[in-house]
Amino acid sequence: MSPPPVSTSLERTYRYLRIGVAGAVVVIFTAIGVTAASVGWLTSVSDYYYTTARDAFVGALVAVALALVALSGRGAERFLLDAAAVFAPLIAVVPTTLVPGSIPGVEVACDERCFPREFEADVATGVTTYLIVGTLTVLVALLLVALRQTALASIAASLVFTAAVLVAVALTWTLARDHFLEQGHFAATVAFFALFAAVALRNAFPRREAPPRPVFRVLYTGIAVGLALLLVLYVALLPRADATGVPVVLITEAAALGLFFAFWVAQGIEKWRDPDPRLAAAAQTEHARTP
Questions:
Q1: CA-angle at 271, arms to 270 and 276, nearest 5°
Q2: Membrane-spanning residues where (predicted)?
Q3: For the chain, where are the alpha helices, taking DSSP H only?
Q4: What is the pLDDT of residue 10?
Q5: Which letter, b or e, does each residue of 46-81 get, where b requires 16 or more Cβ atoms within 10 Å of its Cβ?
């Protein structure tokens, strides 16, 4: 019996990153479950930012952003994952609005859903850090292009998109801060999951790569359609969620995270034995030389 093939460090990196992204969802769900034992089930997943689950929630989303950049690959999928990575930290550092009295100990100075002002300083720190680090990321990418470590054509779309988002965030934060605080989390969440629905669809119907096996094509298509439907529900239900008495937004957000988790599990299984591109290229070269 032949021994199992030995994986390279690059293969293990991609495997562990996919496991790590799926694990970040487990972290969020675990933190919410633990916190729910003391504060109960809130109206949305995002509401748990205002509880002791905050550190786990923020940390998991920032880790996801880093992993998405590392996993972005090439072509259209690279742009989609890079773009999603731009929005993940915003979901983390810009919290959702709250209904008065929905979370013990958090005061909301309005009659309807709005942003609790006591957290504005926290958001200011998070947004400023986001803008500085985002700008440094763009500059490092340009430096790598100048040093010929990467091709400008391969990252141009991601760079332009990232710069546009950074400018939009900076201008909105500076000139329309109240609107930013009221809508920032919602806009970033919708953008993130919309982009990821496109990622799932792209994996179901790749243009250049070999098509996935039928089971994975069905899974990716189902995830894309499911995320699209959940986004429609999220946008439609959010304005009326507080009047229903049922945590419909919590259920919708949890379902979206579940589909996000399912994608990375499916892709981890599908691509587990994908060869190291360097070894595959070397094997093709050797095969071409063999008479």
A1: 160
A2: 21-42, 48-71, 83-103, 123-145, 152-173, 185-205, 217-237, 243-266
A3: 9-39, 54-70, 75-93, 120-146, 152-175, 177-204, 214-237, 241-244, 248-270, 277-289
A4: 79
A5: bbbbbbebbebbbebbbbbbebbbebbeeeebbbbb
